[in-house]
Amino acid sequence: MDQSERAEFIADITAAIKLSSNLSDDEVRWVKLAIHKQEQSIKLRQAIIEKTLGGLVWAALAGLAYIVFDFLKNHGLK
Question: Which structural domain range is residue 69 located in?
Fold first, then answer.
């Protein structure tokens, strides 16, 4: 496929897409807003998961430190 055939192919695809999507401006705006809302929802879920895992790691470290200090306190370190 040479350059002219490729350009013609792209033009044909573009024309077909334009003919197949008969959405009004309001519908196009609504679709874009829906996509944006989904992106925000995904980012929020990712942030919640990251923060939760971070909190769990810190809680595990604090619990481990408590156990170590309690063990040392009960076995001679005062």
Answer: 24-78
Residue by residue, pLDDT tens for the chain (78 residues) are 688 888 888 888 888 777 776 777 788 788 889 999 999 999 999 999 999 999 999 999 999 999 999 999 998 876
Q: Give the SS3 label for residue 14.
A: helix
pTM over 0.70: no
Is 3 a domain residue? no
The tokens for 56 are: 């769990």
Q: Round to whole Å and give the CA distance between 46 and 41.
A: 9
The reply to whether 29 falls in a domain is: yes
* Residue 17 forms part of a structural domain: no
Round to whole Å and give the CA distance between 32 and 27.
9
Amino acid type, 24 = S
11 within a domain of the structure (yes/no): no
